[in-house]
Amino acid sequence: MKRFLIFALFLLLVFSAVFSQKPRARDLGIPFDGTPGKNNAITDVTGVEVGYTTIISGDGKLVVGKGPIRTGVTAILPRGKKFDDPVFAAWFTLNGNGEMTGTTWVEESGVLGGPVCITNTHSVGVVRDAVIEWLVRKSPREGYTGDLSLPVVAETWDGFLNDINGFHVKKEHVFSALDGAASGKIAEGNVGGGTGMTAHGFKGGTGTSSRKLEERFGGYTVGALVQANYGSRQNFTVAGVPVGKEITDLTPVRGKPDEGSGSIIVVVATDAPLLPHQLKRMVTRVTLGIGIVGGRGENSSGDIFFAFSTANPGAGKDSGLVSLAMLPNDRLNPLFNATVQATQEAIINAMIAAEDMVGRDGNKVFALPRERLKLVLRKFNRLN
Asked: Which of 140, 167, 182, 291 has its CA 20 to 30 A from that of 12?
């Protein structure tokens, strides 16, 4: 009898996990170009780990310092908990009404020696300081180093739903996201730094996707993770269909945010052997993926992107000579395509996974309605 109960509990947990799994864009039959990796996530790039802390608390009228709270932190670790092997990296900004710390050193050195974290606009400072403290505790390095002392932390604005001036993200939340980072499947939607975000007038948030290149192109993997909080409804496009012009209701309730305000942060990872200047070329292609979905780099949007390669281990050592591998420039086109494709799908995945959210002062943002989306796509013959 005891064995039967244990087995029944096991089955219950398995079925619960299966049925609680949020649908993704491909589950709805939305067509995308390219072949995804095993998990269709940035963690398909071997070694990459992602962790979240999600903070949701309180309802009703805004009381600064008390809530309601709808925010969090996302952490991306290029080599997991290994800190003595920096990766080649690059960054790019489409429109600069946003923040990503540490990029001056990345531009100068071409390397990243720590995690990339994403949070809300007014929590960049505490997250940055917490990352330094966490690395000091975890890393064998001592003294000043740009890799440790100048971490990369980015933001998007969640003040429509969140008590952003309450400064609710604490260092313990950052430590939790970093310590809890793992490979494999990634939660999407209202999680981590994407918790309180809005995209194209619908609920936005965190999303991810990946592409596996054909063996004739090297078999490399490209993964993208987005924190989507940008874009106007009228420009919103899915699989070539003007969804934003077809679904014109379900607009944010009460203090409506400005169309096109907000920001989007995109982090791209690859195992292809690329040098920093090649990663720079690759990360600029993120803009094309955003443009396909309907982003235009609006004036009040912070559209900032980061890319790194996990190839060339040992490239960051501080003595001797370093032998490097790199792809010829003539072989980069498949990686450019993969970057565009993964960015596009990651944004749609974020919106598909997101759920309705009510935040401060009763402000409400509706999720993209999945069944109505399918009807629109079917109307244009764009559903698999």
From this structure: 182
Q: Convert the chain into a string of H (helix), E (strand) and C (coil).
A: CHHHHHHHHHHHHHHHHHHHCCCCHHHHCCCCCCCCCCCCCHHHCCCCEEEEEEEEECCCCCECCCECEEEEEEEEECCCCCCCCCEEEEEEEEEECCCECCHHHHHHHCEECCCEEEEEHHHHHHHHHHHHHHHHHHCCCCCCCHHHHCCEEEEECCCCCCCHHHCCCCHHHHHHHHHCCECCCCCCECCHHHCCCEECCEECEEEEEEEECCHHHCCCEEEEEEEEECCCCCCCCECCECHHHHCCCCCCECCCCCCCCEEEEEEEEECCCCCHHHHHHHHHCHHHHHHHHCCCCCCCEEEEEEEEECCCCCCCCCCCCCCCCCCCHHHCHHHHHHHHHHHHHHHHHHHHHCCCEECHHHCEECCCCHHHHHHHHHHCCCCC
> Domains along the chain?
25-314+325-374 (3.60.70.12)
Catalytic residue among 44, 147, 271, 303: 303
Q: Which of 210, 232, 263, 309 is catalytic?
A: 263
Q: Any idea how long the chain is?
A: 384
Which is catalytic among the residues 301, 319, 323, 330?
Answer: 301
Q: What is the arithmetic mean of pLDDT over 78-99?
A: 94
CA distance 278 to 89: 9
Q: Is the pTM of this model over 0.85?
A: yes
Is 301 one of the catalytic residues?
A: yes
Which pLDDT belongs to residue 256? 58
What would the pLDDT profile of 3-18 be if each residue is shown by its tens digit?
Answer: 443 443 443 333 333 4
Cα-to-chain-centroid distance, residue 6: 38
Question: What are the pLDDT digits (tens) for 168-194?
Answer: 999 999 999 999 999 999 999 999 999
